[in-house]
Specification:
CATH topology of the largest domain: Cobalt-precorrin-4 Transmethylase, domain 1
GO biological process, one term: siroheme biosynthetic process
Pathway: Porphyrin-containing compound metabolism; siroheme biosynthesis; precorrin-2 from uroporphyrinogen III: step 1/1
Largest sheet: 5 strands, parallel
EC number: 2.1.1.107
Radius of gyration: 20 Å
Keywords: Methyltransferase, Porphyrin biosynthesis, S-adenosyl-L-methionine, Transferase
Number of domains: 2
Oligomer: single chain
Shape: elongated
Enzyme class: transferase
Strand content: 15-25%
Strand order of the largest sheet: 3-2-4-1-5
């Protein structure tokens, strides 16, 4: 199997970017939102970028780290009008053909529910070099914010990360994953359906649930409830929501 070599950053004396000699692209995870949760590498690359194509959930605090760059919003928000993925792919390709240092700034981690596959395919199809810079994904940030480990010795030794969100032309996802702890991304609108499905599968009504809204941001909210209570929905939540379910999330005695 062929392996991709690590790409090197273009120097100032490199040929001007063009379709034949494109610039370099970094797919960077911005983490849950707080700027000081970025990796050192991500912050350095943002400070060097010529153009930054960023998600809707990327905070102004993080965008302030790249004032020298052209900033292009290619926002995608679940359940809201947003830029179609093929359009984002094309914008990314066009940026690499015009700029030496291109950052595609994604919420959380690019490789988990970040549509990295589609963007990597577009870059590879156009022979554009790229690297991935990981970010803190929402599940880990939310568990830390709530001070609730996702695993606990003797109680939970597996974690399943899932989303019920699907593409426009795809059927709704109704299967529930297996795992001692379940973590649902973009789970706000799906809260009632998720609770009903788990209760129907035999999960106890008093199974602990922790909901984190706007994780790591000034308007962060943490809710502690039970699976039976989750069935009523999360009408109080309007920001990005992550739902954690399982016995590992119970209060410590």
């Amino acid at each position: 199997m062929a392996t991709q070599q690590a790409a090197t950053s273009p120097s100032s004396d490199s040929p001007a970017p063009s379709p034949e000699t494109p610039g370099m692209v970094w797919l960077i995870g911005s983490g849950p939102g707080a700027a000081d949760l970025l990796t050192v590498r991500a912050a350095r690359l943002l400070a060097q970028a010529d153009i930054v194509l960023h998600d809707a959930l990327v905070t102004e605090e993080i965008l302030a780290l790249c004032p020298q760059a052209v900033q292009v919003s290619v926002g995608k928000r679940s359940g809201q009008r947003s830029t179609a993925q093929p359009v984002i792919n094309q914008k990314l390709v066009e940026a690499a053909q015009q700029y030496r240092r291109v950052v595609r700034l994604k919420g959380g981690d690019p490789m988990l529910f970040g549509r990295a596959d589609e963007e990597m395919r577009a870059l590879e199809a156009n022979h554009i070099p790229y690297e991935i810079v990981p970010g803190i994904t929402a599940a880990l940030a939310a568990a830390s914010a709530a001070k609730r480990p996702l695993t606990r010795r003797g109680i939970a030794r597996s974690v399943s990360l899932f989303t019920s969100s699907t593409g426009v032309d795809e059927p709704d996802e109704v299967r529930m994953p297996n795992g001692d702890t379940l973590v649902q991304y973009m789970g706000g609108r799906e809260a009632t359906a998720t609770a009903q499905r788990l209760l129907a599968l035999g999960h106890a009504p008093d199974t602990p649930v922790v909901v984190v809204e706007n994780c790591s941001r000034p308007d962060q909210h943490i809710y502690h409830l039970q699976l039976a209570g989750l069935e009523a929905g999360l009408q109080a939540c309007s920001g990005p929501v992550l739902v954690m379910i399982g016995p590992a999330l119970a209060d410590r005695d």
